Amino acid sequence: QGRGRRPPPAQGPLEKVVAQEELRLPELAGRWFLVGMASRCSYLAEHSHRLEATVVTVTVLDGQSLAISTFRRLDGTCWEIRQRYLPARAHGRFFLKGRGYGSRVDVVVGETDPSSFAILYYQKGRSISVKLYGRTSRVSDAVVDKFEQHVRAVGLSEDMTYYFPTYGFCDSADEFHILD
Fold this sequence. Notes:
Radius of gyration: 17 Å
Number of domains: 1
CATH class: Mainly Beta
CATH architecture: Beta Barrel
Mean pLDDT: 89
Structural class: mainly beta
Number of strands: 10
Order of helices and strands: EHEEEEEEEHEE
Keywords: Disulfide bond, Secreted, Signal
Shape: globular
Low-confidence stretches: none
Main location: secreted
GO molecular function, one term: complement binding
Largest sheet: 8 strands, antiparallel, barrel
CATH superfamily: Calycin beta-barrel core domain
Strand content: 35-45%
Oligomer: single chain
Distance between the termini: 47 Å
Organism: Nyctiprogne leucopyga
């Protein structure tokens, strides 16, 4: 007696996010353009004037994990960054294994119409970001409104939201990097 029960661990912001229902992974396959991103990242805020057009290619592996190839320009060189989103315990949820303690990134597919847009949430530690991808480099105002609603729902604001250029895309890589 005298021992209290430990309080439950604090919920991270991502645990409250509802994943897209009836998500069919093969529908996510193909080419996507990074349209916008919301984040508290101070580097992003300081360097937002240097954002580069970014293209992502999604391949579904083994029916449950995603191979992600991100093509972006950095100092005039086109880079390919390869990642693998592994399935988490719940449908529409993934994680990226990083190197070292605390480097895991959790990913949730929040809302998508696979023919036009996808809104994904990313959480590393207690930090959360939201990304808007489009099948084209421009999306409708209605989709931008949805994205901004998702951004506000996790406590981010308009001044933490950045939109990417719609020109200057890399179609192939001069260099590549694999993130495990």
